[in-house]
Write a structure and sequence with these properties.
about 425 residues; globular; mainly alpha
């Protein structure tokens, strides 16, 4: 039975109860009653508040890191900590581990944008962290597929649907990491983009006093300084670290808030995702992946959403593969928004601040470029990740502990081991 027939006769709503419960599919296919107007306006206000918190969090995080960086002893320690990420594999594994823990590549990439803006790591190092974030974000899909563990056929299909995203990201890194390391295929155009941005009109044309974004979020960072410094009495280093930590927490909460609000607004429209027009061809699937992920700002959400449908046999791997490619591109919107926010706040500032903000936005551009390269290469070669996903799913459906071992090893143990080894080498170099 094809997707058109399923969409036309409504059989999607009659998926097994276990699938509906585990993947929240019922929320996607059931129509909600019409909301009163005041609820719509309240939701819109909450979305604006979430965006404000998102921008303010970036500012607070960067403000805290800059406070620490101004202390000579703290600067030396932070330089040593970030030095371990100079190794491409270590930077890659930092991105994998951090994203696997928080299950949000948007968080990791936005965090990296803030760190680059604070001048703590260079653009070239940040690119490897971004690559790792692309791998780490796919852990959510695989976890969702475990909901089908008791039914071998469903588990095989759903695991293949989840890991086709994993294999694409892994193959993309295997291709681009050595090319970036040797030739700078991402960092060279991203650096050129950052240098162009240094002189762009929107950095220099607006005087500082008219910087509305900066004026709007600055009181939050100043409030943290006042409370932690004047009220609590913390010195510069602990105050800066705590401020940066609170900025990270704010950023995470703002992203969660944004995703929940946007998903709720789209709830009535999500039923159409599985209609006769959605996956009718690969081009449409690709565009839907971009638009949907840009709207909810989480590729983990949008790619995990289709795993139960693949498990139920509603969609095939060739239908969803372009969708995952589009989701990878759509998720870059969060880091781009973060970079634009930093760019807006840098208007009228010193040349050093404008340069840092320009290269923070270049990090977001590098993330986009990384996924565009992967799409250009692996869309025509989609049989490679699809074959790998099918083969692994067949093996794991017979030995189901392999699925749990895969998650543990690929997303946690290997990245942690590489980071530890990189740190050990760094400490050894310092001792000598």
């Amino acid at each position: 039975m094809n997707v058109t027939e399923l969409g036309a006769n409504g059989s999607i709503a009659r998926l097994p109860a276990a699938v509906e419960k585990k993947a929240d599919l019922a929320d996607c296919v059931e129509q909600s009653p019409q909301k009163p107007a005041w609820q719509t306006w309240l939701g819109a206000l909450a979305a604006v508040l979430a965006v404000y918190c998102f921008i303010a969090a970036i500012n607070v995080m960067g403000h805290g890191l800059k406070t620490v960086a101004k202390v000579p002893a703290s600067k030396a320690v932070m330089d040593q900590v970030y030095h371990c990420a100079d190794y491409p594999l270590a930077g890659l594994c930092v991105g994998v581990l951090l994203t696997s823990l928080v299950q949000s590549s948007s968080f990791t990439t936005t965090f990296t944008v803030g760190v680059v803006a604070a001048g703590q790591i260079p653009l070239a190092t940040a690119i490897f962290v971004i690559m790792g974030a692309n791998i780490g974000t796919s852990v959510t899909n695989t976890l969702v597929s475990l909901a089908h563990l008791r039914r071998r056929a469903e588990f095989r299909r759903s695991l293949a649907g989840a890991t086709v995203h994993d294999f694409f990201n892994l193959l993309n890194v295997l291709l681009l990491l050595p090319l970036e390391w040797a030739f700078g295929v991402i960092s060279v155009p991203a650096t050129a983009f950052g240098q162009w941005l240094e002189g762009a009109a929107f950095f220099t044309s607006n005087p500082k006093q008219y910087n509305v974004v900066k004026l709007a979020v600055k009181p939050i960072a100043n409030g943290f300084d006042w409370f932690l410094g004047d009220v609590v009495g913390l010195q510069a280093t602990p105050r800066g670290l705590l401020t940066a930590g609170l900025g990270v927490a704010m950023l995470f909460l703002a992203l969660v808030m944004l995703v929940k609000i946007l998903r709720r607004f789209m709830k009535e429209r999500l039923a159409g995702l599985f209609s006769r027009t959605l996956f009718r061809n690969q081009g449409t699937s690709f565009v839907v992946g971009i638009v949907t992920t840009a709207a909810v700002q989480s590729s983990s959400v949008t790619t995990s959403l289709i795993v139960p449908l693949v498990g139920a046999g509603v969609l095939g791997l060739r239908q969803i593969f372009p969708y995952t490619l589009g989701a990878n591109i759509g998720t870059t919107i969060t880091a781009i928004l973060g970079g634009l926010a930093l760019a807006a706040m840098a208007a009228g500032q010193s040349a050093a601040v404008q340069t840092a903000a320009a290269f923070a936005l270049a990090v977001a551009f590098a993330h986009l470029l990384f996924n565009i390269y992967g799409t250009i290469v692996f869309w025509p070669l989609q049989w490679i990740p699809i074959s790998l996903a099918k083969g692994y799913a067949r093996l794991a459906s017979r030995r189901r502990l392999l699925a749990a071992a895969y998650i543990l090893v690929v997303f946690f143990l290997v990245p942690l081991a590489v980071i530890v080894v990189a740190n050990a080498q760094t400490f050894g170099a310092w001792l000598h």
